[in-house]
Amino acid sequence: MKADGSHRPPGGERRGGVSPITVKRLSLYLRQLEELAEDGRSTVSSRQLGKALGLTDAQVRKDLAYFGQFGRPGVGYRVAELAHHLRSIFGTDTTSNVAVVGVGSLGSALLRYRGWMTKGFRVVAAFDSAPSKIGRKFGNITVQPMSKLAGVVRAGQIRLAILAVPAAVAQKVAEEICQARIEGILNFAPITLSLPPEVAVIPVDLAVQLEQLSYLANPSNSKRKRNSGSRRRRQS
Amino acid sequence: MKADGSHRPPGGERRGGVSPITVKRLSLYLRQLEELAEDGRSTVSSRQLGKALGLTDAQVRKDLAYFGQFGRPGVGYRVAELAHHLRSIFGTDTTSNVAVVGVGSLGSALLRYRGWMTKGFRVVAAFDSAPSKIGRKFGNITVQPMSKLAGVVRAGQIRLAILAVPAAVAQKVAEEICQARIEGILNFAPITLSLPPEVAVIPVDLAVQLEQLSYLANPSNSKRKRNSGSRRRRQS
DNA sequence: AACTGTGAAGCCATTCACAGCT
DNA sequence: AGCTGTGAATGGCTTCACAGTT
User: Fold this and answer.
1) Rounded to an integer, what is the distance from CA B163 to the centroid of its chain?
2) Residue A232: which pLDDT band, with cuts at 50, 70 and 90?
3) Domains of chain B (ranges plus CATH)?
4) Which of B89, B202, B230 to mutate to test the interface with A (most CBs of A within 10 A)?
């Protein structure tokens, strides 16, 4: 275990160079660590963490080592400490406010979805352009017109937007969102957005996901022939 | 352009060896082709297709060449023909029936979501174990008890399941779904399922996606410094 | 003994560059 | 000229294997 840390900036965290695929795994590590914490576990080894997620121990160690030395040889990683550090990497150690834009069937469900909360997010506002939707209430959130978005964001209350409008208007609405100086968009509309580089976008096309599944579910396409005994397998 | 096709099985499609990441892009090609078809375009080049999705032309050609020779030098790809071929690769040239398992806030929204239809899927049934939910109607779909799942699947009406139950029961419910001999599960529960290899699983953890976005939206983490002029950029 | 952190090797994916077709 | 299909080159990610720590 090298002590000088020469491949990283000496006093701080590595910045700007981690691949998206690594970051995705970090999310899974955090999710697993939270489960371990609930079960009262206080340490975990890279092998155990990997096994639970279908990854090799070396992969786990490499991923975590990008951000510093958290593990203790002979012991493993301390669950609470590592979880805390991962949250700070994601920026979810402090709660972020989120807006839902587009309150159709999907948007209104995402508005009610409780899964965000456990991860350090809070949906605090909803916007739509249809007059029929404006003023409607979901729980304690009232749907506001798009024209109010910029004001709410500028008041510092919202960092991220969940975009759930029809494909035909998604590009236009996304541009409005950008003008409100939001930092990132979770895009549920089935189109590729074209936006200025200072705004982050993560696409989530549910129909595409189901299409992927349909492909995999065709036995002649998958590599699932390997291991075709009866051993269990973990999802990608 | 080689004519003998020596690297593929002579008379048929390549089977079993395409990486998931390639398959994901194929979905995007299909989505784009459908938009082009609506606009009345009859051919498209690899460069145009790539530009719309933020990919290189070489990438597009390599991906498509895995499955055969569809392009015409000097012309490009024929939109309708290529779209049809991609659908047959995904198994969505014929409509697949899908069940929603778990009718909470997210499940009921996925039940009502219209986006599946355009892609060759039809949600035809919903299941839940809570007596209070059973018998409830969403559109023309009545929520049935889990015990009915196996029968409906075995009657050949359902290939795929959308799993939208709480994390705490997801593994158990997923096992029930497997026993019903379903081919694939789209897993919205925030856990990694451990299942026999003959069933395909695609995980869709919405909280993880938002976490990814939170990471990317932190300016010091992204590579978005490149191109930091004002040119537009396409989402990953 | 158990486990991490990490060079080095191996493997996979992307891009390059160009022959060949239309 | 415009474009595809594809070997070859490059670049990136994963796994191996082991020195070093507890």
Assistant:
1) 14
2) confident
3) 20-90 (1.10.10.10), 96-204 (3.40.50.720)
4) B202
